[in-house]
Fold each of these.
Amino acid sequence: MGKIFTPTADDFPTTADAVVIGGGIVGVATAFWLSRAGLDTVLVEMRDGLSTLTTPNSIECFRAQFTEPPMAELALPSIKVFENFAEVIGLPGYDISLSHQGYLFATDDPGMVDDLQAAVQQHRRLGVLDSEFLDHDDLLARFPYLSDKAVAATFRQQDGWLSTHEATQGFAKGSSARYLLSTKATGIRKDTKHPGGALGVSGVETTRGTISTRTVINAAGPFAGVVGRMAGLDLPLEMVRRQKAFISPKPQIPQDAPLTIDLVQDVYWRPETGGAYIAWVDPDESPGEPAEELPLDWDYPAVVLEKLIHLNPFWEEIADDLRQEDVHPSAGQYAYTPDDQPLVGPVPEVPGFYVNCGYWAGVMLSPEAGKRIADLVTGVMDPQRNLLRPTRYAEGIVYEGDSFLRGRH
Ligand SMILES: Cc1cc2nc3c(=O)[nH]c(=O)nc-3n(C[C@H](O)[C@H](O)[C@H](O)COP(=O)(O)OP(=O)(O)OC[C@H]3O[C@@H](n4cnc5c(N)ncnc54)[C@H](O)[C@@H]3O)c2cc1C
């Protein structure tokens, strides 16, 4: 059973086989797999709990509907982990509130129909056999809350959402790693005792002391660039604020609906305990500094509602009667890379330093990404097979991203 605690001078670990920096879902999943591989693993988290920064601000969805092979390679096995979570973590009955209510990517633009059909064909090539292309009639028959303007969609019933809190805690509990809370990494130590005399990782300095180790994984979410600089690296990352709002329960919200995305307006909503999450992935939001506190735009929920009404007219009646206390906004940051796909794997300039960062969909990719790190650290995976290696830009092996809903065109 993993130990989650705020260390004192008496129980602060001074050595570890591997140190993970960052206790969001990505770091905790990584620590889970590293400890499962037999490594004495320590995770340091600067805040006073696991999963308290970006992860709880997501809308907690997962999908197999990717068109980029490297993303599908992470997403599909990750979904299997979510679907068999109690068994994977070894805690019978453990519940992550998995819901298979589906993902619906809908459009009212006839010019996008070919793209949607092509996306479903690409899903097939990537091993996703149960996504569907829906034309106007299918769409309205299956999802009668949609506007008659909708012309087509892709849909997969088995996509859905889960509790990120339970998933993160489950990975921690099911591991044998130690999770140090209120412990901030402040520096990466290096020495030349690596094969070939290269200047590589020798430890992690924290606000509570130094942990000697030969393996460090940077899973610091929006702060991954800051942690990279501690190792002397300039990682290609950009942070962009993403807001969302929870709308209190309303009878008009169809509770059996899937996550419904309007591909033209860049807005989406999904039901949640009688209410709903609503969001707009504003393509013009500028990159900013990594932050723990993010400002909220007072008019954001109104803008989202206005855009949602377009394909989901039932929102109009709700918007008309909405009181301020019905709207609960929040924000987190997406971490973008040049190809909008994460950085996963060792950084050759600094032996022993690994990255697992650069996510705008880190919840749904975290189980397999964490496993991949463990497989790379232990030599189970050939680094050349890892399409998400951070050296891919220099190597020219980038597969251009064209996934829907990533927020960049
Ligand atoms: C509005 C919104 C909706 C989203 N919806 C989805 C969705 O439906 N599905 C999906 O898959 N993804 C979604 N995402 C993206 C998803 O939330 C993130 O990709 C994911 O949570 C990233 O997890 P993480 O562990 O990398 O980051 P985080 O959860 O931010 O964790 C990083 C941790 O590192 C810690 N840290 C940083 N620096 C240090 C340091 N120096 N020392 C110690 N600790 C440090 C931080 O305190 C933090 O706890 C959404 C994001 C937003 C904002």
Note: The mean pLDDT is 96.
Amino acid sequence: MTPTVIATPGPLVERSVRLLQELCSISSASGDTEGLYRMTEILCRELTSLGMLSEVHAESGINGSAKPVLVARSPSVSARHTLLLGHLDTVLPAVPPKLDEGRLVGTGALDMKGGFAALVGALQLLRERGEGPPDDFLLVAVPDEEIGGPVSVGAVRHWGELAHTVLVLEPGAVGEGCETLVTARRGLTVWRLDARGRAAHSGVAYWEGRSALAAAAAWAGSVQQMSEPGNGPVVNVGRIVGGDSEFVSDVGEEHRFIGTTERLNIVADRCLVEGEVRYLDLADRDRILQGMRSLAAEIGDAWDVGVSFKEVEHILPVTVSPSGKALADHLVSAAEHAGWKLELEDNRGGVSFPNFLPDPSAASVIDGLGPVGGGMHTREEHVVLESLSRRIGLIAEALLYIRNNN
Ligand SMILES: [Zn+2]
């Protein structure tokens, strides 16, 4: 399919910039219920004027307080969805936005109010051209992504169940002479090692002691080194707490011993190690975790220390499906057609919305559709207006492609 709508007319870009300024003027930090509702009002106004059916659900967030989820859809009823995802919340409360040499500097401008402005612009662009989004268009905007909140995760699980395609309005990145989209993301496994040895006075009964701390530290050094460069899995030892067992089991209270000479004469009989493995591929995950488990058993035997290794939590990786790859390749050629360079990131490390889909490999997933910029989560946060214009065309192109290919 030849790309068609990628050029965005100037007046439409100006209108999108004004919308982005309006969105950035609203303070919608994660806990700010009033600001979050205000965000949904403005987005409802825009989407309704473009023929969408919009509603706001109150969902119970952290601490049980009600937070808004915006759901906007095409009027036609469909069994499956083209699901668009975004978040209403920001990390910082807002300060007034300003235009500055081709950039809009504002709270959440990049992450990710720019993505909403680009989407509304894309729907306007399609309308101006006598086209429309897919009949199964469904936008879900959540209130607590920046705090890893339960509403975001629950909404992605719920609405993702029936999605054949998932488009995420988080910002793309700036590469060398290009902008990016994200097609694959690493999953992660949180793990915990608990080692228990035998306490003894290090002066008078040293050889009767069994140091859980030394055994766990030896293990920790080795598992970090199991990391593989490039697309391979990586192991991160995030935390290690060792000492006598009273110290380890009540470190909040007992941390007062740190920096003193007290209890250094005890062979350290307890050690906890916690961390993550991040991977693109489930076979890599299983291989690395098996290696960590066997090494724990080996080191436990060698040091005569009891060692338990547990997988605490798994978050699935997002892999590129054949239909997702076809859509992504189409967007790369659409950008080229419009005179700018788009590259695909297939090894992004951070977890995002699509990692929480019931089966991230079952849908076509494109993440990072929002405009690029810099200074995320700081007072210098900004969006590049040229990128906003590009992304309006890019999102319109994606919606048109999905409409014509499903
Ligand atoms: Zn974000």
Note: The radius of gyration is 25 Å.
